[in-house]
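Two entries, shown back to back:
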Amino acid sequence: MNKLNINKNYTSIIAIVGLMMTIIVPFNVYASYISLTILILLFPFFMYDVIYKKSYKKMKHIKYLLIFILAYIITIFLSEKNNLISTVHVFIWMIIYMIYIYPSNKTIDYKESLIQFYRGNKIIIIITAMIQVIAISFFIFNYGTKVGSTFIGMYYNRNSGITIDSIQLSWISITCIAGSLINYTLIQNKIINAPKNKYFYLGCIVLSLITLETTLTRNTIYSTIALFLFIIFIYTFKKLQNRFKNILAILLLSISITTVSLGIFLITDKVIRKELPNIIIQLPKKDSMKTPSSEINSEQKTNENSEGNTVTTNQPSAESPRENKNTVSLERSKESRFKYGLSGRYEIWRCGINVIKSYPLFGVSTGDMIAKTIETNEGNEFYKVFENSPNVFASQHNAIMHELVASGFVGFILLTLFIFYMAKDTLVYLYKCKFTANFKIVCILASIIATFIFVIGIGQSIFCFQVSFISAYLWYIFQYLEMCIQLKEVEE
């Protein structure tokens, strides 16, 4: 039985790592092959768990997810111009997130579960750290290229190399930070007996912060700041709760300390981002930048890779930082194509609102999103911005908008209920429990989930309808959060 339990943990890790590999392949067909191969490998384990072990039945709020799945099936049948293969692909991954990766093993004890969690995270951390080291090395030694308005470390052309864009590299970084924080906490609180390894995880956090600054992706940099702020706020609130009885005073003091921390983070980030171009200029460079094939652009990436820091249709050719050290800041300040700023997201959201008005109850599903966006918006000023590149509408670049467009208000409400009750249980636990090792673990897990959904989710569609490693990792974290907040007997 333990062997099967360990297999479940490691098959979840295989899914996350496998999806991570889809971001470093050049064309959508290869990424799809990788994703489908992982799906085929996972399916026997998934069916065994659903039919025989029925892990999903043991999760407290699973009913909202099961009803959501039924509602989404209705959405698929109602869609008129559905890309069936793409829709089924996303739908099966959605089920695996909710019914396989999310449910925890109740047959093993608390400590054994966290040991498995530690081992799984370690695999993810090692792989993300290796990708970042390679990316930074390419970046420093001028093997990089320019994607959108950002210089990045990895690239691909038809003759050699691999590709990874700045937003995907930043997702790698924040995943590494999240995993490292979890494993460091497990070691620090003596749940895992590996005291020397904590320095490795601290090093991975530093490496990831450096990588984030080289990508210059605003959403993920601010998400990382938000992650640390969530942790600071929860820790501060709990410490003050033990000293004061007035809840208003505790709240105000906690907010004040968090606000001061925010100011320090923002000032530090501003200084680093100001000095980074000057540091890069002074690094030894080769005479010429390697330029990727002009045929490779953001539209060729899969649904896994459709997210970007800036929504672009024609990638500008690479130029050396030596030629213009302020290229990034100048291009970001212009954004002349986008009347309302936000890198074109505002126009996408306005088009999405029109789709929601036309299909409010069940939405249009992921496979029908582009066709329905064109149908409901053709001719208006917001659609004209992307008239020649309608593939950008495969994603709404916002978690809430994406759920509403894909599954309508029915699906959105069901997912919101799941998140609401998970949040309620977590907050009640954090408020009532003592300052134990388990409290610290819950604090880290809750902060990661809050950051992924409510901060990264502002600019990216990561929560449910995205076949990507960061979505899979989010559901993986959900599993252990629910397990930890149900451990009343451990606390006693």
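entry 2 starts here
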Amino acid sequence: MAAGWRSIGLLCLATTLWGASSAVLALIGAGVGATAPVAAGGAVVLIGLAAVCGDRPWRVFAADRRFYLLLGVLEAANLGLYLAALRLGPLPVVVALHLTAPVLIILARIVRGRLPITLSVFLELALVGAGIVLVGAARTGGSAPSAALIGCLLAVGSAACVAGLIVLVAANSAAQPTVSAAGSQLGVAAVFAAPLAVAAPPPNTAVLALLATGALLLGPGFACYWWALRTADATTAGIIGLNEAVVASLLGAVLAGTRLTPAALAGGALVLGAVAVQNRFAPAIDGGWERISRSLRTGKRRPPPS
């Protein structure tokens, strides 16, 4: 399914907000204990907005409790792993690995026989992979090797959670009220992440900043994401998700006052190329390749002239 420009625009806005939140969270450096207040800040704003608009978010949650509990568990795990990774590893590398979700989604569809291996799919994987490598090459910090490795492994774990979240939301978003659904997801995540805040509490001076980050960046990003996934497919959403890495790298360099190489910008261009292949050029690419292959096969079978 090809996504419309409205959905692509909403996905870009959502991932831009998330990229900004990643840069701010890396600057705060609060660790896994920040998961609950960040999620709670976003949940309060979205649930409050839904209530004002007459959505009755508590009824939305009660009507599909298992679905929101699963989303909340995955979101809490995603945020916890991601924040721990940001604390240990270099920002651009961690964000890039965290966003390998589109690769995982595409590979899962291939393994399950739902997506044939075509030239356009190969190009998508190649462009996404190259974009991740380039964004990761734009590392701006000097983490210790062992800490950086652990951070990268945690980021891959968060990517698996992201892949599951994208697939679940894409499959169910059309039947759910957008703002209430996004608020319920974050609200449940905040509840499940509460033990992390008790075990590793963030500094008192950082709590307000964490709540504001959730309210102003994370929460609105989730609302845009749910709106977009009413018409966008999981693969497109995952690919555009790499925009978060580009924004996080740019803002991280600005906020931390560090130098940013052009690699992050090049990675962003490759992400746009993957989106273009997925949504606009796949039929032409696969059709052209099929015609070339057919002509080559026909030429091999053609008998020599007598």
